[in-house]
Write a structure and sequence with these properties.
Structural class of chain A: mainly beta
Distance between the termini of chain B: 62 Å
Helix content of chain B: over 70%
Oligomer: heterodimer
Strand content of chain A: over 45%
Strand order of the largest sheet of chain A: 8-9-11-12-10
Number of strands of chain A: 23
Radius of gyration of chain B: 22 Å
Number of helices of chain A: 1
Largest interface: A-B, 24 and 26 residues
Structural class of chain B: mainly alpha
Radius of gyration of chain A: 23 Å
Number of helices of chain B: 9
Helix content of chain A: under 10%
Order of helices and strands of chain B: HHHHHHHHH
Distance between the termini of chain A: 59 Å
Shape of chain A: elongated
Largest sheet of chain B: none
Number of strands of chain B: 0
Chain lengths: ~300, ~220
């Protein structure tokens, strides 16, 4: 489809749009694009610069008020087809970016970020407050964000690195990798994929990791106080450190480490579940201390 | 404290005891403070359940689905409603009703694209149902959304359709795995929870696909 769009776009003469608009603090950037790219980076100026590469048949429309800057493209005969946006914004500006056949990237944001596409990747560096990233057919990647984080894909992987705050990640057919996480509330689920969590376990925190076909690898810091519930149907459980199992039933068992004030739920129907220390979740099984049971 | 009459109190409230049993239980109630207290609680729960409003949330997806699958009217459902629970069921029902009420509000406030509005008189399938009916309703909703998606699939790009169908297949496989495992171990809480989770996931993906189709149209 993108190839088709590129061909159509090439039939028109490529054109550049380059406009800079002053903005007030608190204004929001809204960009919608059908096909192409939305790339946002930040600067220290109180202004938004919109650079766009597009067909000569298309026109870039920028609607600016005190509350928002709204960017979209219009073709002479209906919606435009393929536009590559390169947009520079104040770091704290809230971003609402959407596309269909569109790759979305953000670099250096310190504001709220909402990014949604159907066929394309979403890669964001930064973000604070509500950060919501979605793609149906593309990878979703977030680094260096804090706040309430929601990451969704359907057919690709999700990667979250250096995140602080509540984290929710869900895909159907892809891995979920979370590293350097500072969170008291994390929920990650996939159907066909592996889940890795390497981060803090905070007192009173809630953590849930669930997959159907895939392994779980989760880190538990040495001094964490946590109640762990493990459920698997066809998989095995192993741990890099000794644990004492309790309340064991056919496919489920619990154990407690320290005070037990945090709660971790680990579920994999067909995969193995492994607990390790932070930084060790990618290691092999040679240090296992599994099945340290206390009936 | 529990005695031989505790589990019969629900039938007592519903008038299902024989005259002999009712006389015996009346005599027992005169002497048993615990049963009198339980009876009072039962009557309060029943009264609250009967007083609940079945009105659908304004922005709910379900009225459209209800219309599509031909769910009976509210009046007919109320006429058919008959409350006959054991004590544990009533206690569970109180909890479920609380969550369903909160859930209905949540659904109403949630900014979710809705199917076309239901015709007047159709019933929100979400309200005041037991857990087993909840499962049946979910299955009906999945079927309805599958039909909707099948009708609208030409509005979506073929690559998107392929991806959605592939992922629905992945979820279906997980559902089948859970169902097979449950056939051998029907009381397993993990398996029941896993099946419910994957069914909900399928519902969400179908909703997402339906939304994409409506946006593209």
């Amino acid at each position: 489809m993108l190839m088709t769009l590129a061909t159509i776009a090439a039939l028109g003469i490529a054109q550049q749009t380059d406009t800079t608009i002053p903005v007030r603090a608190g204004a929001r950037l809204e960009v919608s694009n059908f096909g192409g790219e939305i790339a946002v980076k930040t600067w220290s100026k109180s202004a938004v610069r919109v650079q766009a590469t597009h067909s000569g048949r298309d026109r870039i429309s920028i609607d600016a008020t005190d509350q928002y800057v709204r960017v979209k493209s219009e073709g002479r005969r209906g919606p435009s087809q393929l536009v590559d946006y390169d947009i520079t914004v104040p770091a704290s500006m809230a971003l609402a970016l959407s596309g269909v056949y569109t790759d979305i990237s953000v670099d250096g944001s310190q504001g709220e970020v909402t990014a949604e596409t159907v066929e394309g990747s979403v890669k964001v560096s930064g973000g604070a407050g509500n950060v919501s990233l979605k793609s149906v057919q593309g990878e979703v990647t977030l680094v260096n964000a804090r706040g309430r984080i929601s990451l969704n894909s359907v057919n690709e992987a999700i990667t979250a690195t250096s995140i602080s705050g509540d984290l929710s990640a869900e895909t159907v057919n892809g891995d979920i990798t979370m590293t350097q996480i500072e969170s008291a509330n994390t929920d990650a689920t996939t159907v066909n994929g592996e889940i890795i969590y390497d981060g803090t376990i905070k007192d009173g925190g809630r953590y849930r990791f669930s997959t159907h076909d895939g392994d779980l690898r989760v880190s538990v810091p040495e001094k964490a106080g946590v109640s762990v519930s493990v459920a698997t149907f066809n998989g095995d459980f192993s741990s890099c450190f000794p644990v004492q199992l309790s309340r064991k039933t056919k496919h489920r068992f619990d154990f407690t480490i320290g005070s037990g004030s945090a709660r971790i739920e680990l579920e994999s129907f067909n995969g193995d579940i492994r607990l390790c220390r932070p930084g060790q979740v990618a290691k092999g099984k040679h240090e296992d201390h599994d099945d340290q049971e206390e009936e | 404290m529990k005695d031989q009459w505790t589990d019969r109190l629900s039938e007592y409230v519903d008038g299902d005891l024989t005259a002999t049993e009712r006389t015996a239980l009346d005599a027992h109630l005169a002497a048993c403070g615990a049963c009198r207290q339980t009876l009072g609680e039962l009557r309060r729960v029943v009264a609250r359940a009967q007083a609940l409003d079945d009105r659908p949330p304004a922005a709910d997806l379900w009225p459209g689905i209800a219309e599509h699958i031909g769910v009976v009217s509210l009046a007919a459902r109320r006429a058919r409603r008959r409350l006959s629970f054991t004590v544990p069921q009533l206690a569970a029902a109180a909890v479920v009703l609380t969550f369903l009420s909160a859930g209905s509000v949540w659904l109403a406030l949630r900014n979710r694209p809705a199917l076309p509005p239901a015709a007047p008189g159709t019933t929100a399938v979400m309200s005041n149902v037991g857990m087993s009916r909840l499962d049946a309703r979910t299955a009906a909703s999945v079927a309805a959304l599958e039909q909707t998606l099948a009708r609208n699939r030409d509005r979506l790009d073929t690559a998107t359709v392929r991806v959605i169908e592939k992922n629905l297949g992945i979820i279906d496989r997980a559902i089948r795995d859970a169902q097979s495992a449950l056939a051998a171990d029907p009381a397993n809480p993990y398996l029941n929870q896993h099946l419910a989770q994957e069914t909900r996931r399928k519902l969400e993906l179908l909703r997402q696909a339906a939304t994409l189709a409506s946006v593209r149209s």
